[in-house]
Amino acid sequence: MPKPKKRGSNHQRGAGGQPRNVQPFSDEDASIETMSHCSGFSDPASFTEDGPEVDEEATQEDLEYKLKGFIDLTLDKSAKTRQAALESLKSAFSSKILYEFIMERRMTLTDSIERCIKKGNSDEQCAAAGLACLLCVQMGSGIESEEIFKTLGPVLKKIVCDGTASIQARQACATCLGICCFIVTDDITELYSTMECLENIFTKAYQRDRDTNGVSSTHNTVLHISALLAWTLLLTICPMNEVKKKIEMHLHKLPSLLSCDDLNMRIAAGETLALLFELARETDADFFYEDMELLTEKLRALATDGNKHRAKVDKRKQRSVFRDVLRAVEERDFPTEMVKFGPERMYIDCWVKKQTYDTFKEILGSGMQYHLQSNDFLRNVFELGPPVMLDAATLKTMKISRFERHLYNSAAFKARTKARSKCRDKRADVGEFF
């Protein structure tokens, strides 16, 4: 493999000593450049992809060299360059385990993130908050993550509570605050303090002026949704006595959010209600909710909503979610889901587990499967045990060739076409008969 060129300054200069645009770190190119080295690690089976063998050690060195460059560029004078560097680091951190690399540079990364959140524009703050989440996911629940959170926690809280900051930045910081606190904090006081900060945000949705048609939407709705979901995540790790207090405080108020004009707020409120009922019944098998009839009526209306003024996609999504929520509230039932990753399977069989999975899926994206296989922290959260070690021979037997995949997909497509054709023929016959 050819040696990389000169590793001198962090950026080149054009005529007159002025910094030039750094082409590899534009919004699109930075992601592509990073992922060209990272995407192969998103699935262990990709190690045995058809083609010549890759020198993994050299690829790892090349990746680390690029990541060092991205870390340096988070201090660049250009806001566009800083943001592109943050996005590239996010792509790398979500697609590969880089514990040792990050361990050596965690203070530098923390300082860069803190500076970008404090002084950056809205987009830069969002990217920095997202990187902070991934940094804690990579480090897990050790003392190093606690140090990161001690530095970033106060900054995140300040942005979340700052009414002059952009809604997008406050939303990203609220999500980051909840996730980082979930990962690192063993201090119950800090947990309660963070939940109180988030409560102060989403409870404002209760206090809006209401008319006979329900709750009117505002531009703050996205912030309220993020704060509510982050608070719900933290509630899942609270002691039972605190859970009881929170249920008493919010269970009678949350149903008002089911009338919000915003679909995502209705869904967030519905799923939070299902989770609260699940936790309440765990703490008290004879739990009784006074307004159950009114609540189930609301949930049933949302589960069968046919309003013509709403988009079909939104109605399908809403009906699907609220059918499950209604089953949880009325019948104490949860539709078990199975998640496949490599040779393993994980069953999501309760609302607490679903809330946790959805949260980490949102920040890890396509890298979720890889982290479920390899990330000790996530495996501990979902009680998956130590990572399953697979040798190259086993991986090769699991991998099918592109040609075999093509044949399988073609056969499946033909089978679906035939099945649908038969159904159409039956309907045609019935129509002609009558």
UniProtKB/TrEMBL annotation:
**Biased composition regions of type Acidic residues, renumbered to the chain:** 50-59
Question: What GO cellular component is one of the record's annotations?
Answer: nucleus
Give the region (Disordered) as residue ranges: 1-59
Cleaved signal peptide residues: none
Instruction: State the UniProt keywords alphabetically.
Output: Developmental protein, Differentiation
Which segments constitute the Interferon-related developmental regulator N-terminal domain?
A: 34-330
One biological process term from GO is: cell differentiation
- Stretches assigned to the Interferon-related developmental regulator C-terminal domain: 375-428
Is Signal there in the keyword field?
Answer: no
> Which stretches are tagged as biased composition: Basic residues?
1-10
What family name appears in the similarity comment? Belongs to the IFRD family.
Complexes and interactors: Interacts with PSIP1/LEDGF.
Listed name of the protein: Interferon-related developmental regulator 1
Source taxonomy = Eukaryota, Metazoa, Chordata, Craniata, Vertebrata
